[in-house]
Amino acid sequence: MRKVLALLVFATAILVGAQPAAASYATTVTNFDAAGNQVTRFDTAGNAVDAHDGDLLAAGGSYYLYGTSYDCGFGWQQGGTPFCGFKVYSSTDLVHWTDRGALFDATTSTWQSRCNGNTFGCYRPHVVYNAATARYVLWINTYDIGVGYHVFTSTTPTGPFTEQAIPTLAVNNGIPPGVNNGDHDVFVDNDGTGYLAYTDWRTGGDIVVERLNSAYTSGTGTYVRLGQSATEAPALFRRGSGYYLAYSDPNCGYCTTGTSVKRASSPLGPWSAGTKLTTGSCGGQPSFVADIEGTYVYGSDLWSNGAPNEALANFFWAPLGFAGDGSVNAIGCPATASITLTSGAAGTQVHPADLDQDGGVSGYRTYCDVGGNVQRSQSFVASRTGTLSAVSYTTFQRGYPNAGLRIAVHTADSAFRPTGGALFSTVVPAPAVGWSPRNITVHPGLSVSAGTRYAIVVSSSTTTGCYGLQYHDGAPYPGGGEAYSSNNGASFGAESNRTVKFQTSIGTTNPALTATATASSSFEGCCGWRLTALTDGQDASTPASMGWSSTNSLNVNHTEWVSVDLGGVKAISRVTLLPRSDAGNAGEGFPADFTVQSSVDGATWTVLAARTGYPKPAATAQHFDFGTQTARYVRVVGTGLRNTNPNDPLYRMQLAELKVA
């Protein structure tokens, strides 16, 4: 069968509106380590960037990376695997990327039926800005309709995006669903005219360029064929008065293949013959050519082809070079690439509260072997005496483990090997570990002493698949080292200069303490109820500080929400909700159906935890753990409330305290 797959990416970068005056900023992206090995790119929370076969857009002084997510375990032509949706990240320097969440809700039955592993899947989110309509326009490639694309719009580059009418195109329009049209690119010319460059599979992999309507949401029927075969993934861009179209040559699915380019004096041609720029695309498939303020950045997806787990795919990015006659130079594969950004600024990592020890995020590689008899250990030395409040270990799953991941803390010897019994141990269920490398954070609450060496030990009883690690053999954390066991922990041997990616926190700081809270409604009348009591540090419900209570629509079930502003972007991994604890009312008012959400801007929200039919809790803390996220805002949305309180049989949402860690 022809290997169809929207895997390549072009990205047209459009600066929207006037840009503030700023000095240029030189940034450096890293593709490979000094030995030529691929390295993982992490977001500002320390999780691997999970946006593939997508697009890169410059807008309003920031840069946005769009792509297909694989973290939930989607596998191409792997029946039963879910569709993970499309994600967007933002950055000011092309290095520090903040996870801005999903472009739209892909968990619905509609999108799962269109895009899950029982289908050919959905790929290649490409976004451009339409200055005439003041809308960001998103095109994605699917195989559930004959034309092969769905179109969305949004008022912001991060969404949420709302689906528009099914587009019409000159090629393969109005025919039954199937392998018709494939990889595409959306391009906006200097005069504001939009174009779609797309792959026609029914002619064996030709590429078509078609003019779009004024809204960029459908074709006009004016088009040109490039007369090719066995190609895909066009990337259309303009340099000076010339037009260029880079493409995958030949086409293939999740592989290493070449990149070629054609030239023209108009998007509608005539187009020149193709010129090969690289036979291997630096270890992957060509993904985009983004006009970043006059620098043309070429990118390719370095697919993992493992197990399969394309969530492990890495990236290659570097500027294109041009000869005096305008032709594109052959693509080299530098380990690092410098890019000058007119509107850029340095970014930073976001660290969790009370960070004590940290292995950093640069230069890490991926490996997977934890399970069965194999265990891994990373040692660290506590810098201060206190409570080990959080331990983060960067991991992923591959091959469908049938048991959870055990994370334990031991003391360790001077050779970095764990000693004695576990001081703390917990098992993280397999479904809680993603397929993309990200921080799994546990909260030991363990007393530790300054200067004492400890070890984080990971293991699993799984008999299928494995749990992975991110490792660096240049000892980026000199205060400790990694050790390996192949006999189920009976003995460990240190592995020289190796660091496994981790973080530890010592302390009990709650960034929600005294945070500014807002709510859908709030009872402020008497008796200790008030919105400010939600984050005043008083866990118990007392007449002086009962907590927060909603007060809307008391006679009918309805939705209520409460949100806290942490005052700045933080790295968080747990939200704790304290129910009412006053005599006779313990647990009352705690929602039955609710979500815990986060946001970096108060506009786009990511669901961290969702519960339906949650039993009325006792007067004890309810912890909701998740992979590390960057957030300024945390919100609890109750969609199903209780009216079971005999003292007050009305529909209220009530919490004694909200904590964040």
Strand order of the largest sheet: 28-27-31-24-33-34
- The total count of helices amounts to 1
* Radius of gyration of CA atoms, rounded to a whole number: 26 Å
The outline comes out as: globular
Biggest β-sheet description: 6 strands, antiparallel
Amount of beta strand: 35-45%
Distance between the amino and carboxyl termini = 50 Å
Mean pLDDT: 93
Low-pLDDT windows of residues: 1-21
SSE-based structural type: mainly beta
Estimate percent helicity: under 10%
Tell me the total number of β-strands. 44
How would you describe the overall organization of this protein?
This is Family 43 glycosylhydrolase. Pfam families: F5_F8_type_C, Glyco_hydro_43. The protein has 661 residues and is mainly β. The longest helix has 7 residues, at 109-115. The protein is globular.
In brief:
This protein is mainly beta. It has 1 helix and 44 strands.
Kindly list the characteristics that best describe this protein:
661 residues, 6-stranded antiparallel beta sheet, mainly beta, 43% strand, single chain
